[in-house]
Amino acid sequence: MEDKYHIDKAHVRASFGRAAKTYDAAAILQKLVRDEMFDRLDLIKVSPNKILDAGCGTGHGGFQLQKRFKTAEVFSLDLAMGMLEKTHEQQTIINKLLRQKRLICADIESMPIADNSMDVVWSNLAIQWCNDLDKSFTEISRLLKPSSLFIFSTFGPDTLKELRAASNNGKTHVSRFIDMHDIGDALTRNGFNAPVLDVECYTLTYDDVRAVMQDLKSIGANNATQGRGRGLSGRGFLKSLAEQYEKFRTDGKLPATFEVIYGHAWTPEAEQDDHGLGKGVSPISFRHRD
C-alpha cells in the first residue's frame, strides 16, 4: 500500500530550485534556528578539518561555519541545484577566498562522499525531507570519522498543526514529522553515541491564510507528499481552508506553529576494549522546554 506521506523528491528538488531567489527574504525561522544551533555549537568542543553542511539551502550556515573554523574545508550539499547556484553566487560576493567549488548536488539519503572523511556534519532543517531516517543516519555515520559530531535541527509533529487541522479534506497538506524520541532511537540504532535532543516551539503570525501559504512557497516548502492533491486547488477548498483556519486567530493574527527539534550526537571512538569490541552506545538525553 502506498504511503501517502512519502516525499516526492523530484517535487522537493523543483520547489527549492524555484525558491532559491526568494528564500533568504522569507527564511526568518530558518535563520532563528541556525543562530540557535550556533549558540549550541559554542558549548561543544570541536576542531574540525572537514565539515559538511547537509541541506545547505542558500549557504549561510556554511558561511558561518567557515568563519568560525577558518582552517576547515566546508562542503555544501543540497538536493536542489538552484540552491547550490545561489550558494556559489553568495560565496563569491561574501569572500573571494571561498570560490572553491565545494558544492555537492545530492540527496542526504545517498551522498557521494567517502567513508570516514568528515569531522562534523551540520544540518539545519533539512532531514524532514528524507523518507528513510535510518538510511539518512546510516549515511551520515558512514562519512563521519570516529569521535566526530553530527549536529542538526528538524521539525517535530506539532509543526504547522493549524494548517493540518484546517485542511482536512482527505488529502495530505502537511508532511508527517517525526517525534523527538523516535529520532533519538534512530540515532542510537544507527550507531551514534550519547545523543542529546531537545525541542522548542516557535509561532509565526500572519494576517491571512494566503500569507501563510505564500511564506511556505517562498522558501520552497511546498507540500511534496504523495497524497497531496494534484493540479490547482479549487476555490471551494481555499475558501474552506480560510474559514477553518480562522478558528485559530488570536489577537488579530493567524498563528503558524513550528516545533523544532535540536540534536547532536557523536560517532563511536575508534578504540576497542580488552575484548576487541567497539565501545558501547551511551544513553539518550532528552530535554523538554515549556
In short:
By secondary structure, the chain is of the alpha/beta class. It is built from ten helices and eight strands. Helix content is 34%, strand content 22%.
Description:
By secondary structure, this protein is α/β, with parallel strands linked by helices. 34% of the residues lie in helices and 22% in strands. It starts with 8 loop residues before the first helix and ends with a strand.
Search tags:
alpha/beta; Rossmann fold; 8-stranded mixed β-sheet; 8 strands; 34% helix
Label the overall shape: globular
Instruction: Give the averaged pLDDT, no decimals.
Output: 88
Percent helix range: 25-40%
What order do the helices and strands follow?
A: HHHEHEHEEHEHHEHHEE
Helices, by number, come to 10
The domain count comes to: 1
Return the CATH topology. Answer: Rossmann fold
Q: Give unreliable regions as ranges.
A: 273-282
CATH top level?
A: Alpha Beta
For the biggest β-sheet, the strand order reads 3-2-1-4-5-7-6-8
Total strands: the figure is 8
Task: Give a topology summary.
Blueprint: H1 9-19, H2 23-26, H3 28-41, E1 50-54, H4 60-68, E2 73-78, H5 81-94, E3 103-105, E4 118-124, H6 133-143, E5 144-155, H7 161-166, H8 180-189, E6 193-206, H9 209-218, H10 235-245, E7 254-266, E8 285-288
Parallel strand pairs: 1-2, 1-4, 2-3, 4-5, 6-8
Antiparallel strand pairs: 5-7, 6-7
